[in-house]
Design goal:
Blueprint lengths: L7 E2 L7 H16 L7 H23 L4 H27 L7 H8 L1 H4 L4 H14 L31 H9 L2 H20 L1 H4 L4 H26 L4 H24 L16 E2 L3 H8 L1 E3 L4 H6 L6 H6 L8 H15 L4 E3 L2 H17 L1
Parallel strand pairs: 1-2, 3-4
Helix pairs in contact: 1-15, 2-3, 3-4, 3-11, 7-11, 8-10
Length: about 350
Amino acid sequence: MSQFIPVAFARNQTNGFSTELRRRVKQYFQENNLPKQGDWRVHMKAVLWVAAYLVPYFLILTLDMPLWTAWLLTVVMGLSMAAVGLNTMHDANHQTFAKSNRLNKLAGATLALFGGSPLNWRIQHNVLHHTFTNIPHKDEDISAGGLFKFTPSEKTRWFHRYQHLYAPFLYALMTLAWTVHKDFRQLVDYHRMGLLHRQRTTFARELINNIFIKLFYYSYIAIIPLWLLDIAWWQWLIGYLTMHFVSGLLLALIFQSAHVVEETDKPMPVEGKVEDEWMVHQLRTTANFATKSRFWNWFSGGLNFQVEHHLFPNISHIHYPRLSKIVKECAQEFGVPYHEAPTFARAVSSHFRTLKQLGRS
């Protein structure tokens, strides 16, 4: 893999839409005297969801319970793992969890609790996905090594005809891949692309960090339970896979239903350029879902307001419901698209219809 070459976005294509939107959002924070970072609501959720992951773990280790009860607790751990990722880890790695950089770094490191590399995640998500959303060969969130066809410009393979059928099974492996091979593969790729250097780190340092994270993770998630509990290895494996399947499927559906849906664009750059300015590109390639649902706004860490998150990733998700009114109004005034699905189910349905259409085109 060669050095990473970015894509250029157009400028001033909408008679000042980006300038006006930024002005209105800035004015909103100034008039209401609000910080852009999260507050006690974000911090309380962090405590809640980390506890919801660790408490079942210690209950399994210390209480004599039926296997089916322990299995149900692994389901709870999977849901909690997804919630920590969507809320605490995600906000912290965008520097919006708290004003303190140290607290953001500590909260962002919760990914290591689940066997993943915070640095790799920041490069994939903050640098590649947020900058080059839905652009083939740039946005790794729509790159699946040929297993899926997420954009019209990708080569169609015979098995893509069935991708809408096998997608849930592969999506369920997403977080499991972090703990096995993905971090090491990404580390090699990012080193060759020069992205580690841009993060002011080295391949050797991050390789040691990754090895330490994996040793820590498998020590508490595998070695300790197999040592303390009177269970067979395959019983442990069922619980372990259940936890990751629940987390992986939920996370994948939330992220994919915000970008790979019928309404969003999947543009192919021409001579290294995209025809839209960056903010307009984000609106064309991103969609909201269930914005009136308090549950999804709370559980997903505001990622049901994916449009606002992509436009202002440096602002905490607690502000997105208010910002969405500003963004939607400004987009209508300037004739810029604003995509949203009324429910999560509608967004997921649109995603699978898109997979089916792309697989047969």
